[in-house]
Structures are given as structure tokens and as C-alpha cells.
Write a structure and sequence with these properties.
Number of helices: 9
Radius of gyration: 19 Å
Low-confidence stretches: none
Shape: globular
Structural class: alpha/beta
Helix content: 25-40%
Distance between the termini: 31 Å
Number of strands: 14
Strand order of the largest sheet: 2-1-3-5-6-4
Largest sheet: 6 strands, mixed
């Protein structure tokens, strides 16, 4: 593990949380408070609304006043938090975004990104026989989640990653940023134009939607899969709704699918271990609880 762990007195309640703007939609408190109760840990996890204005001062006051062990970072602060960190994991540095903060015993701030780790763990849990070696992957979207997932796929030694997005300049930036890392892993990065009705690329083993298309009240991702490999896997990191049109289409055509709820839990468990010094097991009961809150 890259991240830094520190022991806390079991008699002292540990506080953590999530910052964002807005923040009311976050399911993170459900996840963390579920495990705190299950593991009988004295602690709490809360939401903190942090506006963009006076961000640095707000974070310093939050850490000081709330005595936080750490916190998750969501939109729009994943890049902004970089400047406040004294230590940053190699993973977060290479991805260019931070979603997990640990406050060290000396008061220093450590930043990490657990999205890629959560993505890979969930994939391996759901499809245990998936072979990353020699695989070809299609990643739809070029935002922060896309960067984390592409970074994770490179580190799993996949052969080819095709990146599809409407804005080509975002793809070119990802390719430029990750080119050296990809070369060292013998992974080839490709730019693909995302059209309104996208035709599936021949020979793709894994398709991942990292874009907002498919979210509730958002545009749906239209993709033709008639020429897809029979063994292809369709993975959508969107979890509201659980089954997007993208996944429904794949299921109707008898392809294996993975929803976004597992990645949501797995990436959260990285932070939980950092703050509360316990490594929980994945919980199907928690999955059901989360689905009732979507």
C-alpha cells in the first residue's frame, strides 16, 4: 500500500467525513457509518459542505475545529486540494486528482486517490477470470474518473486502451500525461471519436463508461454492440440508476455486466482503513442498503 497509516487510541472517537460542493447527494456516510457500527468502532463520518471561495482557509478550519483523522474529497475539489497537501501518493500525483485525505499525527496532510484501486478490486471480485494481459479496453469519457481508471488499467499491463470522448483535446491531454507510464508497461493508448451513435470496436475485451452519460436525468449513452466479442465485459461506474441503458443493452444481448455500486464501496474502504485502522470485508448487505438510498 502507498498510503500512510497511523494508530489511534481505541478510547478516542475517530472523526472523518467527505467534503464537496454540493454534498447532500453523497452516499459515503452510509458506507462508513455502516462499517463503524458493524466493527464496533468508536467514531463518526459526516458530510461537510465546502464552497470554492476561501477553500484553503475552510479546509484548515475544518481540520482544526473538527479534529478530523481525514476525509474524502469529491467534486469540485479533487484538484484544488493538491496545494494543501504536504505529502501525495505516487498514484495521486500521476492521476492528477485526490479523493482521500489522511491527517498525520504531526498535522501534515497526506493525499491519495483510491478510485483506480476500487475499480480494479470490484472488477476482480465480479469477474475473477478476467485476464488483463493481452486485453484491449475501451474507456468512454475523459474526466477525473477516466484518468484514475486508465492509470489502473496501465498498471494491470493491458495491451491497448482506446479512449473515447467528444472533446478530443481531453483525450490528447490524458495520452500526453500517461504516455511515459504506458510505454514502461508496454500499453498503447489510442484516441477515438465518440459520436452520437457509437459503433463498438472489434476485439475489445472490456468497455468502461466513466462519463456522466447514463446518470439519472442525464443523456443516455448510445452504443452499438452487434459486433462485440461474445466474451466482452461492460462496466458502468454510474450507480444511479444501477442499470443504465448502456448496461441494459449489454444484458439484453447476454454480455457480462458490472454496475458502479461495487467500485463505490471498494474505493471507500481504502479511506476507511487509513482513518480507522481496520480493513472491512465487502458487504452485500451494504449494497442493498445503498440501493434503497439511491
Amino acid at each position: 500500500m502507498e498510503y500512510i497509516s497511523s494508530k489511534s487510541s481505541p478510547s478516542t472517537p475517530i472523526k472523518a467525513g467527505v467534503i464537496g460542493f454540493p454534498i447532500s447527494h453523497s452516499l459515503s456516510p452510509i458506507i462508513h457509518n455502516y462499517y463503524l457500527k458493524k466493527l464496533n468502532i468508536s467514531g463518526s463520518y459526516d458530510k461537510y459542505l465546502v464552497p470554492i471561495d476561501n477553500f484553503d482557509e475552510s479546509i484548515k478550519n475544518l481540520i482544526s475545529n473538527q479534529k478530523l483523522a481525514g476525509f474524502n474529497v469529491t467534486i469540485p475539489h479533487k484538484e484544488r486540494i493538491f496545494d494543501l497537501c504536504h505529502h501525495i501518493s505516487k498514484t495521486a500525483q500521476e492521476i492528477g486528482a485526490i479523493n482521500t485525505i489522511k491527517i498525520l499525527s504531526n498535522g501534515k496532510i497526506f493525499g491519495h486517490n483510491s478510485d483506480g484501486e476500487g475499480f480494479i478490486k470490484n472488477l476482480k471480485n465480479q469477474i475473477s477470470d478476467f485476464n488483463f494481459d493481452n486485453s484491449k479496453c475501451l474507456v468512454i469519457g475523459a474526466g477525473g474518473a477516466s484518468r484514475a481508471i486508465i492509470h489502473a488499467l496501465i498498471n494491470q499491463n493491458v495491451d491497448d486502451i482506446y479512449i473515447a470522448n467528444r472533446t478530443q483535446s481531453k483525450i490528447h491531454k490524458i495520452i500526453n500525461d500517461f504516455n511515459l507510464i504506458a510505454l514502461n508497461k508496454n500499453t498503447k493508448l489510442h484516441s477515438v471519436e465518440l459520436k452520437k451513435e457509437y459503433y463498438f470496436l472489434d476485439g475489445i475485451d472490456l468497455v468502461i463508461n466513466t462519463s456522466s452519460m447514463g446518470m439519472k436525468n442525464s443523456e443516455q449513452l448510445q452504443i452499438k454492440i452487434s459486433n462485440a466479442k461474445k466474451t466482452a465485459i461492460f462496466y458502468d461506474i454510474v450507480y444511479n440508476p444501477l442499470y443504465t441503458d448502456f448496461l441494459k443493452n449489454a444484458r439484453i444481448n447476454n454480455f457480462r455486466t458490472i454496475t458502479g455500486i461495487g467500485m463505490l464501496i471498494e474505493q471507500a474502504l481504502v479511506g476507511f482503513e487509513m482513518w480507522f485502522n481496520h480493513k472491512p470485508q465487502y458487504s452485500l448487505e451494504l449494497e442493498k442498503i445503498l440501493l434503497t438510498n439511491i
